[in-house]
Please model this.
Amino acid sequence: MLRPDLTKRFLLKAGVACAALQPLSSFQVMAGSTKIVDPIWSVAEQILRDLKLTSFPDRDFIITAFGATQNQLCDKAIAEAIAACHQAGGGRVVVPEGVWSTGPVHLKSNVNLHLQKNAVLSFVTDPQAYLPLVFTRWEGV
Model:
């Protein structure tokens, strides 16, 4: 069992040691307390208050209604379902249970791509299906 007086002294010393590693303007130990204050975290509560849950209109666009069938490439049906969902103002594009073969999937605003239980999107391995190439950066490179 930890002794409260020793634990407080240890935390205070650890806080002072941590403070020594940081610029004084960005890290401080409150006098007479074990509480460590870092200004970076001072805005965390405001950020959490500003977060909004995503919401989509209650409309489903099932890919089979757009011609998707298992054991066949169904990227056109998926693209049509996504386009219809987007044009309607949003909703869910539903991939039912099963294995669905597709090429690239391009999502649009207000579209929730929803895979039901045991649904699998199996992306084709042919690199030609993913052309044209898109210039991108990763970690600044």
